[in-house]
Amino acid sequence: MDSTALYEATGLTRLYGHGPDQVRAVDGIDLSIARGERLGLVGESGSGKSTLIRMLAALDRPTSGTITFDGTPVTGRPERRLGFLRSAVQIVFQDPRSSLNPRMTAGDIITEPLRSPLLRRREDVPTDRGRRLAEVIDQVGLPADTPRRHPHEFSGGQRQRIALARALAPRPQVLIADEPVSALDVSLRSQVINLINDLVAQDGLTLVLVTHDLAVVRHLCSTVAVMRSGQVVERGPMARVTQEPRHPYTQELLSSVLSLDP
Ligand SMILES: Nc1ncnc2c1ncn2[C@@H]1O[C@H](COP(=O)(O)OP(=O)(O)OP(=O)(O)O)[C@@H](O)[C@H]1O
Ligand SMILES: [Mg+2]
Fold this sequence. Notes:
- It contains eleven helices and ten strands.
- By secondary structure, it is an alpha/beta fold.
- Magnesium ion binds next to helix 1.
């Protein structure tokens, strides 16, 4: 595994609103993510996890601070010059019901990133869309007749598989997932977690996973960053952080999880 930094964020800050109501959603984060790292982002609701990953995926822009991806600056670039990031980084959201367009067929949903003008001309993006569609459908364990059906014809777990197939289609280097199993029935969660684990291993992906569930982080991640009030209060290898947490908030988080364990 190549351990050079893939992402570098410096002084990353995102403010929302103005005056006394201003929220420091992300507040001066320095973060580096290595190629092949599987980073779990945990922290209480409102701590800034989603805001941070939206900026990493360039779906939102920081108020201040910089992000570089593979040595190339992301911040300050117009959308038409973000093709390198749009092909390399894919994001999966919590609720596949709202993230998949109900009027499109699953086939069109999955191949949409491949048809984007920003990605179409990139060498690393597959050009044979029909073939790539069949490959990713097989990879996520969906039936072969998936492409002509619509999202409502699938179960919640299958819809999240469609979202994963779409994310994999352009052969990304990074998969970002925001609470990918929390909208699913408990009985389906471990299936989808195992699938993500397999996909990340098969394709050698870098993973950035947001979750409330430390058991999910333990299963999928090699490192963990603990967020509170827009800051990363602790970051390190999974085993070190869970066995010897240094920050009082991490200790609190771990003990609240342990006390819930029967
Ligand atoms: N578009 C927005 N406009 C205004 N405030 C926002 C916006 N998005 C997020 N915030 C605020 O920024 C802070 C961080 O929100 P964020 O969604 O990043 O937290 P989170 O850690 O993902 O929380 P959760 O675990 O509930 O998903 C919160 O106080 C939130 O209310
Ligand atoms: Mg969130």
